[in-house]
Amino acid sequence: MKKSIRPADGKFQTAVKVIMSLVFAWSGFFWSGVTALQFFINNTSHKNLAVGFFTASLVLLLGLVLCWARLYILQVIPSIVGIIMFLSPAREMIDHAADTGVIFKPSFEVRYLPVIAFGILSLVLFAVRVYGIISARNERREEFNNLPSESVLEKHHEE
């Protein structure tokens, strides 16, 4: 049985993974970490937000690791779940900040919303991988259907 070897990633997939890593470093690691430390140290009444950001960042990191491991179909699940988990405490924090009149510098959109780009890029890698699988199957099917075969007349003549 022939073992199937996946070709190396192209420039497009590598560029998408680098952009995903940068987005994670900015929102998922840096600002999430700053926010979690802020809630653990200065505002202990909202530790649930810190735990939410920390947990979501770990789930997003899992998605990023799976992405770099080229498991594009599997990585989409923790990526989307991580985004939902990440934006939930962010929304709650913004609602709380609006009630107290706190002004974000830089703004909320610059800090936390780039995680949505992480999810979109995750879906792009997923779609590219699924398209690659489908096109490879179609190529194999077409190759099989076009294999030369013996003529019915030649089979009958040999008997």
Write the layout of secondary structure elements.
Blueprint: H1 11-41, H2 47-68, H3 72-100, H4 108-111, H5 114-145, H6 152-158
Put simply, the count of helices is 6
Instruction: Compute the average pLDDT.
Output: 83
Order of helices and strands: HHHHHH
Describe the sheet with the most strands: none
Radius of gyration: 24 Å
Instruction: Give the count of structural domains.
Output: 1
Poorly predicted runs are none
Tell me how many strands there are.
0
Beta-strand content estimate = under 5%
User: What percentage of residues falls in helices of 4 or more residues?
Assistant: over 70%
Structural class: mainly alpha
Taking the alpha carbons of the first and last residues, their distance comes to: 33 Å
Give the overall shape, derived from the CA principal axes: rod-shaped
Q: Summary?
A:
By secondary structure, the protein is mostly helical. It has one domain (about 10-145).
